[in-house]
Amino acid sequence: MSSSVTPTLGLHKWIGTDRVSRAEFNENFDKIDAEAALTRAEFEELRLLIARLDTGWGIADEINFRYPDNKGIFYDILDGQGGRVTAALENAITHATAALSVGATSITVGDAAGFAVGEEITVFDDVNVENVTVTAIAGKVLTVGALTKACKAKATVARTTAVTDALNARMVFPTWGTSNITITEA
After folding, report:
1. Is the CA virtual torsion 167, 55, 86, 67 positive or negative?
2. Which backbone phi and psi does 148 adopt, to 5 degrees?
3. What is the pTM of this model?
């Protein structure tokens, strides 16, 4: 009989004077096998989550780097159904009239119509992308939290409308309720 057990799995441990028991050996193997099965299942869940995140990042790239006339076309919303989904955004996309530097808190845009205080917006060019919250609007100037990335003149400024929910394998829309979105699946 073993004189002690391991702290994590409770496997039998023997010292020099203990009698080794075949039943205890088999019990150890059963515990190891059960833990291996759990670990394998957890690895599979992680593999699926990574695959969803990879797909989600691809969709996020499509959202973040779309051109103003693209209207946001997405090929799968991660709902498990497949198919092409089109999300049309109304009056919530414009461009910065000048280059934006790191630390900037105001963005002069071509048209501020369609934006509101408290909304999250996405600012992006062909190099950088980031989301910030609008804290004030004065004419064509959006005041935002300090930018952490620089963007070129004519960078796109758009209301952030969709985020990927990889855990539930779908795209979701923020709850602030100011987007006018039409979604059709072909």
Report:
1. positive
2. -105, -5
3. 0.43
Angle in degrees, CA 55, 61, 63, rounded to 5? 105
Q: Which two tokens stand for residue 149?
A: 């990335």
What's the residue count for the chain? 186
Partners of 158 in beta bridges: 93, 122
DSSP state of 180: -
Q: For the segment 79-121, what is each residue's pLDDT rounded down to a tens digit?
A: 555 554 444 444 578 899 999 999 999 999 999 988 888 888 8
Following DSSP, what letter does each residue of 106-151 receive, concatenated? Answer: EEEBS--TT--TT-EEEEE-SS-EEEEEEEEEETTEEEESPPSS-B
H, E, C per residue of 60-107? HHHHHCCCCCCCCEECCCCCCCCCCEEEEECCCEEEECCCECCCCCEE
User: In degrees to the nearest 10, what's the CA dihedral of 42, 44, 49, 51?
Assistant: 160
Tokens at residue 86, please? 């089109």
Token duo for residue 64: 């973040």
Q: What is the pLDDT of residue 27?
A: 94
3-state SS, one letter per residue, for 9-65 = CCCEECCCCCCCCHHHHHHHHHHHHHHHHHHHHHHHHHHHHHHHHHHHHHHHHHHHC
> Position of tokens 């709902």?
79
User: Are the C-beta atoms of residues 166 and 176 closer than 8 Å to each other?
Assistant: no
